[in-house]
Write a structure and sequence with these properties.
alpha+beta; Ribosomal Protein S5, domain 2; Rossmann fold; 3 domains; 8-stranded mixed β-sheet
Length: 667
């Protein structure tokens, strides 16, 4: 028996050896693909700029602006100009020292050519040339070159002007050349994004405008100029008071609790700036905008961790010491941060610069956590001691938030335990048609404009996974009301109860009973207004739904083109005027057109097939491309200052194109 087993094992080992040998023969040096550095970037652009959509496109500008800003931060130049050209290119001009043009010993190439075509090359790996810098990985300019149709670099340095040009993908087209004498100094980079790489190559005025305004707030003493040759727009950005001006801009339309607060420390190795503003009404508790070396760290990091701990400790310590609260009644972090907008900016010495990833969305330096925590505790404690009336008002506000939160938690626990709640505790609409499935990730909640559309949606829905909530009218503007009034509103109370994941600081997206929240309104100005009101609510009280990609806009068709001689069997839906022309051509002579002015004009089967059926519908996912843009946009559009709203509409809305406003929806 043992001999037979040994023979079997020998046979198995031999078979395994033959399989391994065959596998090794099929995997040789010929299978090792060696890409040039620029080819590697083009093959995996998301690794270097985050994405190939609009966000990644604009990241090309941010990389070049960051280089110019680093020059300005370190005392070289006070003017930076960004121009959006008619041919779709962008140029960034600064007054810095000018990129070196002498031959780099290690490569035998001019230094500027190395910087724009080689990864991990640059003058920012030590503090010899830059005390602080946004750049560290030596990837930015190279990524811009690799992902552009062309990149032109003009350098003014040492009394001479130089030029070098790279073609598509960074191939050298014009070697470094000397153009002649000049009195100027600095660098101008002009590049045109490659449309074969990006889903869009249309630079957005709003995105660039906001980025430069943000830079001006962060870098005092530097003027940023933006010009758009496409529509003759231009603007200058300069913030004399830095973050103080920044937080006043962000909170311009909010009802504030006390004045804005500002601290800074330029004496320590890690330089810190902090601006705080508490507001009276109930807003999200994660309104923290964080920066490191002038880069917006969207993902936060150690400096944000230190800030949260520092604020929590300072407020609680002061309140206990001054006998406003007892030790056992300490305030939670969510109670203190509710209604707070905070901006934290740290400048890290170049030798300690530590970001996570090329897009630098998270600061990973551990020293920053303790530095920011100690800085915050020291300065905020002193401020509260010097402004006792404000401090007491703040503690009372935090206590009120805590009471509301405790009540909500008890109500949730009661619901989970099967205990009944009083009717006054919440309002729920009798028009809600709930989904039957407990597979919450697959469930969808359609928030529908009007009873007529709601009726069609209920008839055409998938009852197992789709819930329908028709709205009674326009919801409240949650940017201009208290949480108590919001919760008493029938529509919002029903939405909160239906989603079942809490609200405000207590909201937990993982507990949502619906994987998708879909806003379905008419394609007109009233429908757009309802969308904005609902999106404002989700942004203010359920922001993780948006950041987790769970909020959508339904896209019902505007037209149905049919054959008059056979209206039932031959028809095509069209979502815009371009679709309409294509549909008319496909249907051919003798066509008829149904124009849907509202959802209620569609039959249940039509609404289901075009807008609700997962296999055939179109949905737009709501996303936050830039949190600062969103905060300012909501403040302007939903705030109390009508003049700001009028100004924005006049500058941004083309009324002759209102009919096609449903091209894209994004916060």
């Amino acid at each position: 028996m043992m001999e037979e087993e040994n023979k079997a094992n020998i046979i198995d080992d031999a078979a395994e050896e033959r399989r391994r040998a065959k596998a090794e023969e099929s995997y040789t040096s010929k299978d090792i693909e060696v890409l040039s550095e620029l080819e590697g970037i083009r093959k995996r652009p998301g690794m270097y700029i985050g994405s190939t959509n609009s966000s990644g496109l604009h990241h090309l500008i941010w990389e070049i602006v960051a280089n110019s800003a680093d020059e300005a931060i370190n005392g070289f130049g006070s003017n930076i100009e960004v121009t959006l050209h008619k041919d779709g290119s962008c140029s960034v001009e600064d007054e810095g020292r000018g990129i070196p043009v002498d031959i780099h010993k290690g490569t035998g190439m001019p230094a500027v050519q190395v910087l724009f075509t080689r990864l991990h090359a640059g003058g920012k790996f030590s503090d010899k040339n830059y005390t602080t810098s946004a750049g560290l990985h030596g990837v930015g300019a190279t990524a811009t070159t690799a992902l552009s149709e062309y990149t032109d670099v003009t350098i003014c340095r040492g009394g001479k002007m130089y030029h070098i040009r790279f073609g598509q993908g960074g191939k050298l087209e014009v070697p470094l050349e000397e153009l002649g004498p000049t009195r100027k100094h600095g660098t101008t980079v002009r590049f045109k994004p490659d449309p074969t790489v990006f889903s869009t190559v249309d630079f957005k005025w709003d995105s660039v405008y906001n980025h430069l305004q943000e830079k001006a707030f962060l870098i005092r003493g530097v003027h940023f100029f933006l010009k758009d040759e496409r529509n003759k727009l231009q603007h200058e950005f300069y913030a004399e008071n830095g973050l103080h001006d920044y937080i006043d801009t962000l909170c311009a339309s909010k009802e504030r609790l006390g004045d804005s607060i500002y601290f800074d420390d330029n004496t320590s190795p890690i330089k810190i700036e902090l601006a705080l503003q508490w507001c009276q009404k109930d807003y999200n508790s994660d309104n923290i905008f964080s920066y490191a070396n002038s880069v917006h760290t969207f993902g936060g990091g150690t400096h944000v961790t230190g800030l949260k701990a520092g604020i929590t400790k300072a407020v609680n310590d002061w309140a206990i010491k001054n006998e406003v609260i007892k030790e056992k009644d300490k305030l939670g972090r969510e109670d203190i941060f509710e209604g707070l907008t905070a901006i934290i900016h740290v400048r890290i010495p170049q030798s300690n610069n530590e970001f996570e990833g090329q897009t630098k969305e998270i600061l990973g330096l551990q020293e920053a956590e303790s530095a920011v925590r100690e800085f915050t505790v020291k300065n905020l404690t002193y401020y509260l001691s010097e402004h006792k009336d404000f401090a007491i008002d703040l503690i009372h506000k935090c206590q009120s938030s805590k009471a509301v939160r405790d009540a909500a938690r008890k109500a949730k626990e009661a619901a989970r335990s099967g205990k009944t709640q009083k009717k006054a505790d919440f309002v729920i609409s009798d028009k809600l048609a709930a989904a039957q499935s407990k597979d919450y990730a697959e469930n969808e909640l359609f928030i529908v404009e009007g009873d007529s559309a709601g009726g069609s949606a209920k008839s055409g829905r998938d009852r197992l996974h789709q819930a329908i909530l028709p709205l009674r009218g326009k919801p409240l503007n949650t940017n201009d009301t208290t949480m108590e009034k919001m919760r008493a509103n029938a529509e919002f109370s029903t939405i909160i109860q239906t989603i079942g994941a809490g609200v405000g600081a207590d909201f937990d997206a993982s507990e949502s009973k619906y994987g998708k929240i879909i806003i379905m309104t008419d394609a007109d100005t009233d429908g757009a207004h309802i969308q904005i009101l609902l999106l404002t609510f989700f942004y203010n009280y359920m922001k993780p739904l948006i950041t987790n990609g769970m909020v959508y806009i339904a896209c019902p068709p505007l037209y149905r083109v049919y054959k008059k001689s056979d209206p039932k069997n031959k028809f095509i839906y069209a979502w815009d005027d371009a679709d309409l022309e294509e549909a008319k051509e496909k249907i051919g002579p003798g066509y008829g057109i149904n124009r849907y002015k509202g959802l209620g004009e569609m039959n249940a089967d039509q609404l289901a097939a075009t807008t609700m059926n997962k296999a055939t519908r179109k949905l737009l996912r709501v996303r936050i491309d830039d949190p600062i843009v969103v905060e300012k946009r909501i403040s302007v559009l939903m705030g109390n200052d009508a003049s700001l709203r009028k100004q924005w509409i006049e500058e941004n809305v083309k009324f002759d194109e209102v009919d096609s406003f449903m091209k894209e929806v994004k916060l």
